[in-house]
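Thread: "does anyone have the structure for this chain?"

Original post by V.I.:
We have the sequence but no experimental structure in hand. Need at least a predicted one for the grant figures.
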Amino acid sequence: MFELSKDHEDFRRLVRDFAEAKIAPHVAQWDREHHFPSELVPQMGELGLFGLVVPEEFGGAGLDGGGFTYLCLAIEELGRVDQSMGITLSAGVGLGINPILTYGTQEQKQQWLPDLVAGRTLAGFGLTEPEAGSDAGGTKTRASLADGQWTVNGAKAFITNSGTDRTSVVTVTARTGETADGKAEISAIMIPSGTTGFTVEPPYDKLGWHISDTHGLTFENCVVPEDNLLGERGHGFKQFLKTLDDGRIAISALAVGLAQACLEAVTEYSKTRIAFGRPIGVNQGVSFQVADLAVMVEASRLLTYKAAWLKDEMEAGRRSLGEVKQAASIAKLYSSEAAVTATRIATQIFGGNGFMEEYPVARFYRDAKILEIGEGTSEVQRMLIARGLGLPS
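Reply from O.Q.:
Generated one for you, tokens below.
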């Protein structure tokens, strides 16, 4: 069965120290200003955070199938201090690096991965569209091939790490024709930043994740070489769905970090906040909620790291993709909903102070909701879990 080793725990401490030293002192101001701290990305790269699942030949850690658990530990610890920086790492690896690493040619890997692993650049993942979210197969962006070049037209929505001063490329899904049975042929195409016709729209005014970089993208007669096809033509949708399986585990780790932060905050507050002449933690109405929160954190963490362990075991050939997909959806569903509940409990225990932005639980509350939406909504996870149990679709 899976367990975290001393090396895992030492790595956790390394990332926690970084987050508390480099992010925590500034996070409230960055959140108010909607500021993306680009300078932290190469520092994260120096710690090796972007290379945990990447072979040494491209600058990665070369952990031989064991890197995904380390990645989840890093995401959890960053997310414990700030969810935005946690998703920056999660998307930077899972949605930026992973498609290139998994489906790219040797030339594409050599061109893009070393800078991405080092944190010198970031990559985005363009799947969602204004009219194609959960229905990702409804992609309307189109790409036509002529004279050795793809011409891309369309739009993407809610794309993380797509408009920073470090963004080097965005991989997008596009209709490239029709299959023999008349369905849309969807392929993945890499579009470098600065390509003529590739426009990064203004940043979204979001409920939470104020520090994270998120934009809509438009493509108007955007021309890239034929060699920018990522993977096989017509396999783009399948490739991106596989990518989302890993992303769901990463979002679970992000949710664990948020729930852990809530638990720490309410435990301390319940000891020090005095009402009616005694700490509020004396009251069972408070202490029972804190206890429930502790249970949710523990359960979320176990589900998440079981899924991460299964992913690493699958990479080593010892577990099946079906096991990983089911575990990923279960972890993502439970952990994301637990995190939302944790922030509600924390805000309630903090009372009026919880409604004030000077206390971090207000930020936690705003940041939590997207966890139930991104990388597949809770409804989608329930559908996938039911299918995994053999129920008719």
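V.I.: this helps a lot. The chain has a mean pLDDT of 96.
O.Q.: and The longest strand covers residues 149-160.
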